[in-house]
Amino acid sequence: MSNIVLKGSTSGDVTLTVPAAAGTNTVTIPAATGNLPLSNLDHVTNRPNAKPLIINGDMNICQRGTSTTGITSTGIAVQDRFSRVMGGAGTWTQTSDTDVPAGQGFTKSMKWDCTTAADLSDAGQVFSIRYIFEAQDVQLLKYGTSSAEKLTLSFWIKSPKTGTHVLSFYQYDDARHVGKAYTISSANTWTKVVCSIPGDTTGVFDNNTGAGLGVEIGLSAGSTYTSGTLPTTWAGYSAANQWVGQVNCADNTANNVFITGVQLEIGEFDSTTIPPFQHEDLQDNFFRCQRYYQNQGANFCGMVEGTDKFRFQVAFDRPMRVAPSITARGSGFKFNARYLGDHTTDNPTIADAASTTFGTWLGVNGTSLTGNTPIYGRSQQDAAGQFLALSAEI
Question: Which residue among 4, 104, 157, 248 is least enclosed by CB atoms within 10 Å?
Answer without folding.
Answer: 4
